[in-house]
Amino acid sequence: MHFAKGLFNVTYRFPRLMLAERVDYIQQWSKQLTKILGVSLRVQGIEPGKYPEQHMLLANHISWLDIFILDSVTVSRFVAKSELRSWPIIGRLCIGTGTLFIERERKRDTARVNEAIVTALSEGHCVTVFPEGTTGCGRQLLPFRSSLLQAAIDGNATIQPVYLRYTDAEGQYSDAATYIGDMTLAQSLWRILGTRSLHAEINFLAPFPTDHKNRRTLTQFIEARICTAHHALNTQSSNA
């Protein structure tokens, strides 16, 4: 019912709402979804606000749930793989909330999406990119891709790295939200609903201006920041 309500609103109400009203709805809907799924939020670091202007979030990627976890705190327009567009319900929700879809196998599509991100940033939007390009297990990070970081430079965005992880009540790693391999959405939902005391942790690292850095250098810097947070937080957990 919650998904159906969201789908109705983004399809029929959103075209008549102001941006601020849409942002409020997305945030509240996402917060309610996390409660329904029994996921508790832990937010650490420098929160960028509800919808920071000309801002780009760069986060590691573990699950489809990442989108709604982030939207519970900071709403943004996401860059997602084109396959997500055809997912039942969630695909329509993503379309209605302004997600930018990319066909990663096509190099020409990267240029198109970079232009769309620059336009969004110049219009004052907040955009989230998952530079790993796909979901990982969460125990280690995948190599970061630099292809979509040119938009941050061209759009003169403020960049903020974000480290995401899912833990149990004791702060230890949990793979309950992991969405990889041949897992279906239904299987993923069932797994999340069957897990007690699942916590989604959002670690907002310090934001910084692009300063016209080379995109490969910029990618390496962001990857190093998120890797440092990954090792520091997981070392803390294993020693606790």
Automatic annotation (TrEMBL):
<keyword id="KW-0808">Transferase</keyword>
<keyword id="KW-0443">Lipid metabolism</keyword>
<keyword id="KW-0444">Lipid biosynthesis</keyword>
<dbReference type="GO" id="GO:0016746">
    <property type="term" value="F:acyltransferase activity"/>
</dbReference>
<protein>
    <submittedName>
        <fullName>1-acyl-sn-glycerol-3-phosphate acyltransferase</fullName>
    </submittedName>
</protein>
<feature type="domain" description="Phospholipid/glycerol acyltransferase">
    <location>
        <begin position="55"/>
        <end position="167"/>
    </location>
</feature>
<keyword id="KW-0012">Acyltransferase</keyword>
<dbReference type="InterPro" id="IPR002123">
    <property type="entry name" value="Plipid/glycerol_acylTrfase"/>
</dbReference>
<comment type="pathway">
    <text>Lipid metabolism.</text>
</comment>
<dbReference type="Pfam" id="PF01553">
    <property type="entry name" value="Acyltransferase"/>
</dbReference>
